[in-house]
Amino acid sequence: MDESVVVTPxxxxxxxxxxxxxxxxxxxxxxxxxxGHVPGAVSxxxxxxxxxxxxxxxxxxxxxxxxxxxxxxxxxxxxxxxAYDDTHGVFAARFVLxxxxxxxxxxxxxxxxxxAWNRDHETTSEVSELxxxxxxxxxxxxxxxxxVGFEAVxxxxxxxxxxxxxxxxxxxxxxxxxxxxRFDWREVVDxxxxxxxxxxxxxxxxxxxxxxxxxxxxxxxNTARRISHTYVVLRALGYEDVAFYExxxxxxxxxxxxxxxxxxx
Length: 265
Known about the structure:
Blueprint: E1 6-7, H1 9-15, E2 21-25, H2 29-34, E3 42-43, H3 63-72, E4 80-84, H4 90-101, E5 107-110, H5 114-120, E6 147-148, H6 150-157, E7 162-165, H7 169-174, E8 181-182, H8 199-208, E9 217-220, H9 226-236, E10 242-245, H10 248-254
Parallel strand pairs: 1-5, 2-3, 2-4, 4-5, 6-10, 7-8, 7-9, 9-10
């Protein structure tokens, strides 16, 4: 796995003293305070970087709001960020995607979650003292961003793209994009270790669904949370042609996009 995208607990433990490393805990504040956290981690709860009112970019908070959040958390644009949660990384992956979209060059996902870290490494309840920064965001241009909108998805339906739906089976059967394949985002996680499965196993698993590096991939779910995890995993595996439908099925249905329903034979 590409360490510039996903890092192991051992990697994080070895770099905790790096003054340019910032560890971000996206769990609820009561978990951060009451259960403990990775030493030096700052609390940036999931809801703080999600904005349902942002009609332009779906649930993204907006560049200025996200920059204010990072500034308050003592994070600078040239810091290395490692994000984690306690839900196999799905909420932390959303933070990674958000930071990338707003131009942060070095942001990574912890392979596993807090429970995986807690098995072999030290935790603390001490809250780190934060020194605010002035964070100037540099959002990706539309042509650089992996995020795509309704019209781009319509165009991709006319090509040989693989549409990957990461939702639950009942959601998939209720309504899905035409020709989509259902891939449960949790399939990439080893239930026992709580970490990602080995690289070779992941590649074989994805290939079973036709999700291969030589294909154009379009990811969607309902509100773009679950696809964040799949997107990060694909990037870590070296996939290059991966589009992220930020509006997902919520936007698609609102625009009367064509859908299929029912069980897949």
